[in-house]
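S1.2 Input.
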Amino acid sequence: DFILTSDPNAFQSLSYLTFQQKEMPGGGGGLFANAYVFRSTYSNTGPVEVWAHSSFGSVANAQPYAQLLADAMGKLPEFAREELDHVVLHTGDGNFFAEEKAENGFFVGYSQRINTRVSNHDLEESVFHESMHVALQTDHATSPGWIQAQQNDGSFITEYAEDNPTTEDQPESALFAYAVINYPGRLPAAVETAVNNMIPNRIAYLR
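S1.3 Output.
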């Protein structure tokens, strides 16, 4: 666990707003679809909407998943949540993905994948990863400072980051850096030592 259930959480409330047509990428049909629209509020940032696809069938079916995402977003760093306008939520077992370059940043999640993430205790980490795409990708992933940090470190924290250095290295590194910076001692000692040795310049950049 990089992020724990007991960590500080800015989430305050989730309310159902309306049922209306929204832009819902990742659903396998048309780009636009009807959605159950929820509004999640936080103590230190503005609200984030959750748009749950009509395939949920009812507000009652959609709300538990919207609640899980809203709660996980409450544990994000403020700067990351401030960049999120909404979340798109589908039924099914697709891979989470983010739209980094959207004017109104968002990521997309799926109900069955959320169930898996909850059972594996890594839903917060998945939400963190996708939110880092939204918050960091456009302005930082190809910035001179970040590229220099990558070169100076000379290694990647995961194979996924190494295979996708311009798209996945920053979110992957950010999760390890977040734990090391904010919760020293949380990761196993050998892992924390490896992180500090492998990506010190990226940690400094993200700090």
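S1.4 Remarks. The chain has a mean pLDDT of 96.
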